[in-house]
Amino acid sequence: MIDQAVRTFVALAGEVGLHYDFLLSPSEVRPWIAGMGTTLLLVLLAIPLSLAAGVAFAAALTSGRPWLAGPVRAYVELTRNTPTLVQLMFAFFALNMLLSKALGGAANNPFTPFFWVVAVTGLHIAAFHAEALRGGIEAVPAAMVETAHAIGFSSFEVLRYVTLPLALRTAMPAIVNNLVNLVKLTTIGSAIAVGEVTYASIMIWTQRDNVLELMIVILLFFGFINTVLSQIGRYVERRLAVPGYGV
Amino acid sequence: MAQDSTARPILVELQDVHLSFGAAEVLKGIDLTVAKGDAVSIIGPSGSGKSTILRCINGLAQPQAGRITVAGTRVDTLRNEAERIALRKRIGIVFQQYNLFPHLTVLENITIAPTRILKVPRAEAEALARDLLARVRLADKVAAYPGELSGGQQQRVAIARALTMRPELVLFDEVTSALDPEMVGEVLAVIRELVRDGLTSILVTHEMRFAEEISDTIAFTENGRIVAQAPPAELFYRSGNPRIRQFIGGFQGYRDAVQDREGI
């Protein structure tokens, strides 16, 4: 049934000069489909990492404690102002190498290229989340914060129950923007041979010279993920909306 | 209104409290005593330090000199957050701008402190919240968000929120100053009832008629000092201080309007 549909599609595409013949070769299709799965897995792991780290960074930046805010500020500036691809190369070739050495050989190093892609993209986007959330936290009126303290909340509780929930609402559009970027950013995994969808596609087009055909699929694939992501973002925004505050 | 304040224990005592913000000396030696069950109003011109006195009492502002004692706790010597939290759990405060949490419903605004800070079970906290909302006549607004309420309604929720920790003392900081005139009465009515029920309270207010009616003592501040402290009748009508007579006099016309509005 599916076989037949694929055959028909390949034939029809052939009519207009697009060569999807690789779809009929299981040994090529399997790693390619797996590549899509890898991309989805990268996204599903990096998104929560970026959000958790973004909240932690924002908390540190607004803590008013220089020993906490200072290093995080330095990290945010460094990661925002340098290319992510270079960061990944650095993490994988320099940090990973040092780790391997420290652990007594690459065989003992549990960190895979896949891990480094999740870590670098997640923590890179976290810096952008942190800035968006910091803006939201600082936009909460000082009187509101003072009231929360007067009620008997600790600094952490003020953040947890008052400023962060309000900041999240203000920062939501920027955060969704960052997540859309994160999804696209996972393609840098191809630079260190993580078999995500672009890497898997490169493997095919170097043999078959069908770059255009695969590019079309890659564009549709990422377009689809990000459309879904944006819809979820809108839904969350609507759910969080409260009468009389900000957006 | 309490009858003989001298017979009851002292709840709040300020002795020679000095506070400066940078070069600006805001409090220049404040002495104030509040007995349990008393309602004390602080009146006086803007910028005379009225609100700062309240902020010192619950540890939001730290005086440079003087002693502040609230129910046996030395407020001026509190040095860390944990000590201040222990104090603030026992003192309710209501602000001019209500400052309700906009992302929480009316019920959540009232239950968040007892459930998160005192770890009171949710059902118990909600039962108390509903009682308090009935007292401030907002039982039907449980599920509303602050943004859906009028200023007067928000301020009454803020009063309920201040009562939710069963405080020994409630501070009211110009709670009607941001309200439209027609909403002042409903808020004052709630406070009047609380004071009659024996709540110890300190009120910074510009509602002279109201202060006169509910207070056991009125303190008149000017330029960082309490220049007079007396029962309302004495301070309002028998004060020999020309500055006080002038200040009260300035409100005379206003007082008639207040009287009309409250239908007293």
Report on the structure:
The complex is a heterodimer of chains A (247) and B (264). Chain A is mainly alpha-helical and 247 residues long. Chain A has a single domain, classed as MetI-like fold (Orthogonal Bundle), CATH 1.10.3720.10. Chain A is 79% helix and 0% strand. Chain A is built from 9 helices and no strands. In chain A, helix 6 packs across helix 7. The mean pLDDT of chain A is 94. Chain B is α/β, with parallel strands linked by helices and 264 residues long. Chain B has one domain: P-loop containing nucleotide triphosphate hydrolases (Rossmann fold). Chain B contains 10 helices and 10 strands. In chain B, the strands form 2 sheets. Chain B has a 6-stranded mixed β-sheet, sandwiched between helices. A 4-stranded antiparallel β-sheet of chain B has the order 2-1-4-5, with helices on one face. In chain B, a hairpin with a 2-residue loop joins strand 9 and strand 10. Chain B is globular and about 55 Å long. Chain B starts with 9 loop residues before the first strand and ends with a helix. The chains are: A mainly alpha (247), B alpha/beta (264). Chains A and B meet through helix 6 and helix 7 of A and helix 2 and helix 3 of B.
Question: What's the gist of this structure?
Answer:
With 247 residues, chain A is mainly alpha-helical. Chain A is 79% helix and 0% strand.
Task: Please write out the topology.
The complex is a heterodimer of chains A (247) and B (264).
Chain A: H1 2-15, H2 26-61, H3 66-81, H4 84-102, H5 113-139, H6 142-151, H7 155-185, H8 197-208, H9 211-240
Chain B: E1 10-21, E2 24-35, E3 39-43, H1 50-57, E4 65-70, E5 73-74, H2 81-88, E6 91-94, H3 106-116, H4 122-135, H5 151-163, E7 169-173, H6 181-196, E8 201-204, H7 208-214, E9 217-222, E10 225-230, H8 232-237, H9 242-250, H10 252-262
Parallel strand pairs in B: 3-8, 3-9, 6-7, 7-8
Antiparallel strand pairs in B: 1-2, 1-4, 4-5, 9-10
Helix pairs in contact in B: 3-4, 3-5, 4-5, 5-6
